[in-house]
């Protein structure tokens, strides 16, 4: 679909430029235009200007977006006919807002564990994406304070319910009207028409197997939303849903993959923690606890939950403790280990247990009991992180005895493999630091 038809506004071009170019093509004198540009810029309805039947060989130059941001909309909506102005191609136009490849000028961030939630007015929201946006904004804020850099962030979602949820979450913490060094504005696509920000975070919300994306598929809106950012554009969405949508969003995901701008939210520990927090709050423990929990699928260590652990978690009353447990698990599954971890003074265990089990404190009172285990998958043996239970110290010996009866059946070879990988993980972690 081409958006250069006369009916459509061209949201890519700066307002003044557009008015100017439009009138130029209507055959007006250029000097006159320079002079009256400001006046026109205020009053003229672009849609109207376009529909007056003028020709469309506009000289299309865009001055707003870093080239990595303009690349996709340019190809998709403008036949690659829009040129990047020299100013956006300068090195200084590329700004770093956060450390990590995921936070470059342009990226798609795959948030897979979201949950679509229809509100009473039939608008959709996704609290997991809200949590991810909030986490990113919180990190931006910390960075902005530390570096004393002015940052203006815009959060956009096509769905009113999501905009509202984001405003509720962010409005309490940050300046929303934009007067301080760090400001966040949260708006719908329509609310952003004509606007721009240094950094834009888009929450696409939809997350379902059908690939149903509703009015997200509207090309003109998509064009608007993708062309608001100056230095950074981070698009959050469920990669699979968008890929199945058969819309321009499918192309967007493919394009991001092809350009190496596609990232999984769970690859960033902070974002993974935010996802878990949201899922716990949404009472989605089942999702978190199922075998091959999607949360841990991309992690360095696969995680397997023991029945006792699942039981303890599902009966856990305190939401914060629950979050802390998963938080610790995410760290463990990404390879983090406590240094100089001393088991001996934590508890007095005999048998194989003492060699294999590890006890990590969760919150002072509770402890996570885990070990490395070997599972058979597709006729291959793989090391996994087995989580036995979460218990107070006094309850641990009982578990240890039970687990020992399981370890008794392990051959020496298998036990050695468990120990071996455990050490390797710890070493790898040290190297990283
Ligand atoms: C998004 O991430 C999930 C799990 O992390 C993965 O299974 C899925 O393939 C990813 N989506 C795409 C489009 O790559
Ligand atoms: C471990 O073994 C010692 C001596 O063999 C015994 O005194 C102690 O009670 C055992 N501890 C546990 C937790 O079974």
TrEMBL record:
Entry's Gene Ontology cellular component terms: chromosome
Keyword Ion transport: no
Keyword annotations from UniProtKB, A to Z: ATP-binding, Helicase, Hydrolase, Membrane, Nucleotide-binding, Transmembrane, Transmembrane helix
Bilayer-crossing regions: 12-33
Gene3D superfamilies the record matches: P-loop containing nucleotide triphosphate hydrolases
GO molecular function, one term: hydrolase activity
Domain DNA2/NAM7 helicase-like C-terminal: 47-238
Matches recorded under SUPFAM superfamilies: P-loop containing nucleoside triphosphate hydrolases
Domain of life: Eukaryota
CDD domains given in the database record: SF1_C_Upf1
Protein name in UniProt: DNA2/NAM7 helicase-like C-terminal domain-containing protein
Organism the protein comes from: Camellia sinensis
């Amino acid at each position: 679909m081409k958006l250069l038809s006369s009916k459509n506004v061209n949201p890519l071009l700066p307002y003044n430029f557009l008015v100017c170019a439009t009138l130029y093509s209507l055959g007006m004198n250029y000097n006159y235009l320079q002079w009256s540009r400001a006046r026109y810029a205020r009053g003229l309805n672009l849609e109207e200007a376009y529909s007056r039947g003028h020709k469309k060989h506009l000289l299309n130059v865009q001055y707003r977006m870093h080239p990595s941001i303009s690349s996709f909309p340019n190809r998709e909506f403008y036949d690659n006919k829009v040129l990047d102005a020299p100013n956006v191609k300068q090195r200084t136009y590329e700004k770093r807002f956060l450390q990590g490849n995921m936070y470059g000028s342009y990226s798609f961030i795959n948030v897979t564990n979201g949950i679509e939630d229809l509100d009473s007015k039939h608008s959709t929201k996704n609290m997991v994406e809200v949590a991810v946006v909030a986490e990113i904004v919180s990190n931006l804020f910390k960075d902005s304070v530390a570096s004393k850099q002015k940052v203006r962030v815009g959060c956009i979602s096509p769905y009113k319910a999501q905009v509202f949820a984001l405003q509720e979450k962010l409005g309490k913490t940050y300046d929303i009207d934009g007067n301080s060094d760090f400001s966040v504005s949260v708006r719908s696509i329509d609310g952003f028409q004509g606007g721009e920000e240094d950094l834009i975070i888009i929450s696409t919300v939809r997350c379902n197997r059908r690939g149903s994306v509703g009015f997200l598929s509207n090309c003109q809106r998509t064009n608007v939303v993708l062309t608001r950012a100056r230095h950074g554009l981070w698009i959050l969405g469920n990669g699979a849903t968008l890929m199945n949508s058969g819309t321009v969003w499918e192309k967007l995901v493919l394009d991001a993959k092809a350009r190496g701008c596609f990232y999984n939210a769970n690859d960033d520990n902070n974002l993974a923690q935010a996802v878990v927090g949201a899922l716990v709050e949404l009472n989605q423990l089942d999702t978190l606890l199922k075998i091959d929990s999607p949360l841990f699928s991309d992690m360095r260590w696969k995680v397997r939950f023991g029945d006792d652990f699942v039981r303890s978690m599902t009966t856990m009353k305190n939401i914060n403790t629950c979050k802390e447990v998963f938080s610790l698990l995410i760290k463990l599954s990404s390879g983090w280990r406590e240094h100089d971890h001393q088991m001996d003074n934590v508890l007095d265990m005999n048998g194989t247990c003492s060699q294999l089990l590890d006890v990590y404190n969760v919150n002072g009172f509770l402890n996570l009991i885990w070990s490395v285990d070997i599972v058979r998958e597709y006729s291959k043996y793989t090391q996994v992180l087995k989580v036995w239970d979460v218990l107070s110290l006094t309850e641990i010996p009982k578990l240890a005895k039970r687990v020992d009866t399981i370890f008794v059946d392990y051959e020496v070879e298998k036990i050695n493999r468990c120990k071996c990988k455990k050490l390797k993980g710890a070493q790898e972690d040290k190297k990283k630091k």
